[in-house]
Amino acid sequence: MIEHFIRNEVAADEVELHEELKRLLNGSVIYHCGPVVKQDEDGNWSFVAAGPTTSIREEVYQPEVIKHFNLKGVMGKGGMEAGTLKACGEQPAVYLHAIGGAASLIAQSVKEVLAVHKMDFGVPEAFWVIRVEDFPAVVTMDSHGVSLHTTVAAASAEKLKGLLA
């Protein structure tokens, strides 16, 4: 997204996709997920597993992605850091923590695959457009500057300090 749509001029053959992603993502959520999918004989896709991937590796890009696509949420596991938290306040948006290790359970929330773009990137990196219901996730970073990840890390460090004393 950064290379193709945000930091560089959109290539002529990707203008339509860029506009479609802007439309789809406007006010929506990006889920950091490398799904396991299957395709039936009619060509329809379904999710077999939809576990979250670690979000922190996207930290360097996430503020730009949130702003460019007018996201209202980013979801994954492990949390994000100051850049994403700041972007959540400016947008406003939230970070949702999905449950690691529950890929089969989460896949039950994916009711429909509406579209898939950039399959040439491979299944895990393609842009999957999905409709979900009752998705199990918790807001852990909000638009008011609160991060449960920071709170838990500080409390854990304090507890460790006491244990080591």
Features:
single chain; 165 residues; fumarase; four-stranded mixed β-sheet; two-stranded antiparallel ribbon; 6 helices; 33% helix
Textual characterization of the structure:
Helix content is 33%, strand content 24%. The chain has 165 residues and is an alpha/beta fold. It has one domain: fumarase (Alpha-Beta Barrel), CATH 3.20.130. The strands form three sheets. The protein has a four-stranded mixed β-sheet, covered by helices on one side. Strands 2-3 form a two-stranded antiparallel sheet.
Share in β-strands:
15-25%
The H-level CATH homologous superfamily, spelled out, is Fe-S hydro-lyase, tartrate dehydratase beta-type, catalytic domain
Number of strands: 8
How far apart the termini lie comes to 47 Å
Under CATH at level 1, the class stands as Alpha Beta
Major sheet strand order? 1-4-5-8
Structural class by secondary-structure content = alpha/beta
Identify the overall geometry: globular
CATH topology (level 3) name = fumarase
Radius of gyration: 17 Å
The helix content, as a percent range, equals 25-40%
- Quaternary structure annotation: single chain
* Low-pLDDT segments, ≥5 res: none
The pLDDT mean sits at: 95
SSE series: HHEEEHEHEHEEEH
The largest sheet is: 4 strands, mixed
Number of H- or I-type helical stretches: 6
Q: How many individual domains?
A: 1
Q: Supply the CATH architecture.
A: Alpha-Beta Barrel
